[in-house]
Specification:
The protein is mainly alpha-helical. Helices cover 52% and strands 0% of the residues. The two termini are 33 Å apart.
Length: 100
Amino acid sequence: KLKDSSSKTKVVDVTGGISVVMAVKDKEELDLLKKSSVLSNKVLKHGFVPRIEDVIDNSTKVTHEKLASEIEEIIENPSKINLNVPKEAVDSCYFPIIQS
């Protein structure tokens, strides 16, 4: 169906990108993945969840964009949730996505 000449969908080869993502990781890559997972968990647990609870408890109106900006600030500066991680050691790959 994608190869139908009337389709506006462009078919591209993503083999290279998928193979990089699926490749066996070396020790350093695994270490970075573990650290990023821990940071994501801490930001969720100590930043996002308390903020959402506050919004719900106080019937506050806040946009998805505002919440995402707040979370990005925490990711870029983990000391905001009392994590001893230097700002220079953290780099976000994309802006947080908030959905209701």
